[in-house]
Amino acid sequence: MVPSGWVRHLGSEITTKITKGSSPKWQGFDYQSEGTLFITSENVRDGFLDVSKPKYLPLEFNQKLKNSQLQQGDILINIVGASIGRSCQYDLSEQQANINQAVCLFRTNELAESDFIQQYLQLPSTINRLLGTQSESARPNLSLSDMRDFLFALPPLPEQRKIAKILSTWDKAIATTEKLIATSQQQKKALMQQLLTGKKRLVDPDTGKVFEGKWERHSLSDLVYVDRKSLGKKTPDNFKFKYISLSNVDFGMISKELEVHEFSTAPSRARRVLQDGDILMSTVRPNLKGFAKVTSCYADCIASTGFAVLTPKKKVSGDYIYQYIFSAHVTGQIDSLVVGSNYPAINSSDVSGLKVYCPAFEEQQKIASVLTAADKEIEFLEAKLAHLKEEKKALMQQLLTGKRRVKVSETEAA
Q1: Is the pLDDT of residue 24 over 90?
Q2: What is the CA radius of gyration of the chain?
């Protein structure tokens, strides 16, 4: 049911243009040189245009295909492939641009506010309806006819503008938080480069002076026990545990939802016994950095043998080792071990032999505390971002369906 005052319109009724681009048939063009920005479905993200890795064509290409030249505010919709239905607005007013055949240009007329339509297209219900119109073929796609015949439920134009303005405030907050996260991650990376190489020395809180002393080079097995304890054949069949598989660990994080198994029916890889303070280090595709610290809530879990379990020895900071295995020094060693392999993996012996530069215990602790604080700042921002996205999602569901109406002043209605 359409809310009071809202009207259903076909896509063809609210646009001045619905078209798609084409692939270039240009001899000797250079995608990396400046010219006409060439936008493909890879550039069209959820709500934003990603031109971090731009492709360019000669300016003549844009002049030749005038029908698909982009203007400020044009809506771009992916109509072919896995990202079908994904949309964003074109907002690079000073850059000439064109699209390929996998992207639909949707240019609104006086009946529709472009910003509102862009938000409307991001509604899950809208995307589901779009996907329901796609033609049956080996490769999913939407036709231009699908877009022309697609039904939009729209409020009066002043209300469209007010809704779009409200939602854009959330978009700005989300974009700002994403930039803060990116900045914090870069700062953490720079800190690691300085602190884990000894280029920058911190102040000893006990003496008030900068730490001194030579750093020593160790094999990792000098500093930690590798795979110290595993479940044996005598484990009772009815022994029940939560299982941490390779898919449960991603760059410092362990899933909260874990499968529960009994030993008799558990996966054959479920063998590594964990304790609080251990470090999980994936030995399968280690370049993906499936590494994480075992906190008290995971201390009774059993991990896959696809991990090396590192247990810090006395007078070794576990937090320092944890930070160090993410460093360029360790990842470089791992890369050299898996080079040329069709199945990138290392073994426990490889892990034991990794080289680590280490200061005295007190300095390890201080370095770890600084880097852990940086991690917590990033975690805080990521939690804030997730919260903002959830709030915006709920607000979209209310405003873009008319379940919640906005008041439009006389000034806004003019």
Answers
A1: no
A2: 28
